[in-house]
Amino acid sequence: MLNSVFTGSLTVPILLLCLLAAIALGVLTAMVFLYKSRHSASFALTLSLLPMTVAMIIMLVNGNVGTGVAVAGAFALVRFRSVPGTAKEIAAIFTSMAIGLALGMGYIGIAVLFFLCSAAVTLVLTVINFGATSRFEKRLKITIPESFDYEGLFDEVFDKYKIKAYLEKVRTTEMGTLFELTYDVTFPVKQIPKQFLDELRARNGNLSIVLEDFSEREAL
Questions:
Q1: Domain-by-domain residue ranges, the chain?
Q2: Nearest to 155, CA basis, from 212, 189, 213, 199
Q3: pLDDT of the chain along its 220 residues, tens only?
Q4: Engineered SS bond to 99: which of 5, 51, 146, 156, CB 3.0-4.6 Å?
């Protein structure tokens, strides 16, 4: 069951068997990783076709070192021309590639077992919302004039609304005429008081204030 189906030269029936298995496992992998996740149709299509593509490449390389180096270079070009994804998207791509590698070497049983294990772990952790925090956290970006002293400028407002804030980053904008302060803030309840934002505006000269969710892409 765990042995390779490649016992000699590659034949059409074996090739079709591996490609069909790659398509089936690719679609199932896409369904598992896209469960309860925001995604695009292009990413779903990519996950579905990736195992078949990788399997075909591995079968064509088949021990040829020169071809393998050329394929590695092509993958590097694709990597640098692609948009960075979330951690879960990267895990899905690596899973699809691993399945494709196994099928490209003829190990259909190993590919199926690996898919079942990864699917079970992914679905269980997704259902129990593993790693999610119960705290209401946001990223706060406040723009102030460069003449303002940003040290402790908003501490009184944070204390008033019992908001925990950590100044993560300070950068200049508009040719150095403005500062952009980036805070990681934790609210005591899942509600953002309008009065809180109004008081921030009163202290930053009514310049830009942005309150957003943490981006998974920034964490990579």
A1: 12-127, 136-214
A2: 199
A3: 678 888 777 788 889 999 999 999 999 999 999 888 877 888 889 889 999 988 888 888 875 656 666 666 656 555 544 555 677 888 888 899 899 989 988 899 999 999 999 999 999 988 887 776 656 788 899 999 999 988 889 999 999 999 999 999 999 988 889 999 999 998 888 888 889 999 999 999 899 999 887 654 444 4
A4: 51
DSSP-assigned letter for residue 63: T
Return all residues near 189 (Cβ < 8 A) that are at least 6 apart: 136
Question: What CATH superfamily is the domain 136-214?
Answer: ACT domain (3.30.70.260)
Q: Whole-model pTM above 0.90? A: no
> For the stretch 5-35, what's the b/e string if a residue is b when 16 or more beta carbons lie within 10 angstroms of its beta carbon?
bbeeeeeeebeeebbebbbebbbbbbebbbe
At position 122, the amino acid (one-letter code) is T
Torsion of CA 28, 34, 35, 38, to 10 degrees: -160
Q: How far is residue 98's CA from residue 62's CA, in Å, rounded to a whole number?
A: 16
